[in-house]
Amino acid sequence: MLDRARVKIASYADRIDLLHRAYDSPIAEEGEKFDLIVISYVLSMINPGYDAVIALCRQDLRAGGVIAVVDFHESPWPWFRKWLAINHVRMEGQILAQLDSGFEAVGRQIGRGYGGLWRYVTFVGK
Fold it and tell me: Best label site of 33, 68, 101, 119, fewest CB within 10 Å?
């Protein structure tokens, strides 16, 4: 994914950093906090610990910085939730609840995937 992203952002490479590392401590240097953190279909796979990652995002964003998240939200089908759990995905609405408690929502939407097999959340917050 990062290789694809590098190609897409090549003309902005002097302004954008892509990182691949465990997010188990703050990344931003003092005085160089991030304007934007984007997280795509990752938090639902960090169990336990997604709440710690969200807390680190708050630490790493500058004042007025933005977090943008898209991830699995929930599914009405127990068999599907069980199958995803085997693949380390948790779909119990926990991510949106944590984002709502840590950020002021600028945009927030729950959509349906694959005819309602699951619901996903998109969240933009400050």
Answer: 101
Average pLDDT over residues 82-90: 92
Q: What is the pLDDT of residues 20-56, one digit of tens each?
A: 888 899 998 878 899 999 999 999 999 889 999 999 9
Closest CA to 78 of 39, 122, 117, 23: 117
Q: Which of 66, 17, 71, 85 is nearest to 39 (CA)?
A: 71
Query: How far is 121 from 101, CA to CA, in rounded Å?
Result: 15
Side chain identity at residue 64, one-letter code: G
DSSP the chain: -HHHHHHHTGGGTTT-----S--SS--SPTT--EEEEEEES-GGG-TTTHHHHHHHHHHHEEEEEEEEEEEEEE-S-HHHHHHHHHTT---BSHHHHHHHHHS-EEEEEEEEEGGGTEEEEEEEE-
Regarding beta strands 34-40 and 118-125, do their DSSP bridges make them parallel or antiparallel, or are they unpaired? Answer: unpaired
The confidence score (pLDDT) of residue 95 equals: 96
Does pTM top 0.70 for this prediction? yes
